[in-house]
Amino acid sequence: QLQLVESGGGLVQPGGSLRLSCAASGFTWDDYSIGWFRRAPGEERQAVSCINSRGTRNYVDSVKGRFTISRDSAKNTVYLQMNSLKPEDTAVYYCAAGGNLDDYCSNYVPPQSLYDYWGQGTQVTVSS
């Protein structure tokens, strides 16, 4: 059974940093790409970033240069390092796993409909 568990959310001031973690179990990295998504209050869930099984990364424009996705295969964990946070980054952040998305993730961040497994989410609040 594939499981994803997010952690690392919290309250941070504008300009601050947080690192989210997505701990995975029940699958091998070679078979899946991992994506990060977020749902802001009153809005639909939107893609943020992805990393495929080859380690290729992609980001949406609104977070490029501020967020970094990385993967520690030994720990079966994917991270989202978020720097220079803004109030508009406030959202519940989710990680997701999807199979056969390597080529998608190489070119753009795949939409949520292409992912098979989801974590429960972690709240990030950026406020002074």
Features:
11 strands, single chain, 48% strand, 1 helix, 128 residues, globular, mainly beta
What can you see in these coordinates?
The chain is mainly beta and 128 residues long. The protein contains 1 helix and 11 strands. Strands 2, 4, 5, 6, 9, 10 and 11 form a 7-stranded mixed beta sheet that branches. The longest helix is centred in the last third of the chain and has 6 residues.
Compute the average pLDDT.
95
Low-confidence stretches: none
Q: Helical proportion? A: under 10%
Shape: globular
How many beta strands in the DSSP annotation? 11
Secondary-structure element pattern, one letter each = EEEEEEEEEHEE
* Coarse structural class: mainly beta
Q: What is the radius of gyration computed over CA atoms, rounded to a whole number of angstroms?
A: 13 Å
Distance from N terminus to C terminus (CA atoms, Å) equals: 40 Å
Largest sheet: 7 strands, mixed
Q: What percentage of amino acids are in beta strands?
A: over 45%
Count of DSSP-assigned helices: 1
